[in-house]
Specification:
The protein is mainly beta. The protein contains 2 helices and 14 strands. About 15% of the residues have low confidence.
């Protein structure tokens, strides 16, 4: 549990310190609903935070229907407040300290990773039916990860009250969540 809280604290600290620096902006879908998460066919999951409505998105990075061997996942910020629909790349420091990932193993259709800020739990990206999904254990059940929600303390944005994993069970498609707190 302490490692999860440490992970989220690192994510929030990096966000607070680095949001305005080292970021390049490029337009995506300006006409989409600003309340939307702007899902894409390649979206594996996203991280939402209580600090604002912006998201950190994780997409399968593919070439000709196969995972890119150099960078299997594209991670970026999705703006949902000031310029809804615009995306921003991560800075080098954001990748290395908080929102990046490490490849544990990889083939053309499967990739096992750990998140930089929380290397204790593995995520497996694989092809299912007609798109890539991200498998992880949620409440001791094999699930397809859809999102993580980070609840920060309103009085101290560096203090995380809890993190919630949200997904659907891999066998039945039933929603499943796991709340991790101190």
């Amino acid at each position: 549990m302490n490692s999860t809280i440490h992970l989220i604290t690192r994510l929030l600290l990096t966000y607070c310190l680095l949001w305005g620096t080292f970021i390049h902006t490029y337009p995506q879908n300006r006409n989409a609903d600003p309340g939307s998460t702007y899902p894409t066919p390649d979206r594996l999951f996203h991280i939402a935070r209580s600090l604002n409505r912006n998201l950190v998105c994780y997409n399968a990075n593919q070439t000709n229907g196969k995972l890119d061997t150099k960078e299997p996942i594209n991670v970026y910020w999705l703006n949902r407040e000031k310029e809804p629909g615009k995306t921003n790349g991560l800075s080098f420091i954001q990748k290395k300290m908080a929102y990046g990932y490490k490849v544990v193993s990889q083939t053309e259709q499967t990739c096992t990773i750990t998140l930089t800020a929380y290397p204790e739990r593995e995520l497996t990206v694989c092809w299912e039916k007609d798109h890539f999904v991200c498998h992880i254990k949620i409440n001791d059940r094999q699930a397809i990860l859809q999102s993580l929600y980070v609840k920060a303390s309103p009085n101290n944005p560096l203090h995380v009250e809890y993190v919630e994993l949200q997904g659907i069970t891999a066998d039945t498609g039933v929603p499943v969540t796991e709340r991790i707190s101190k």
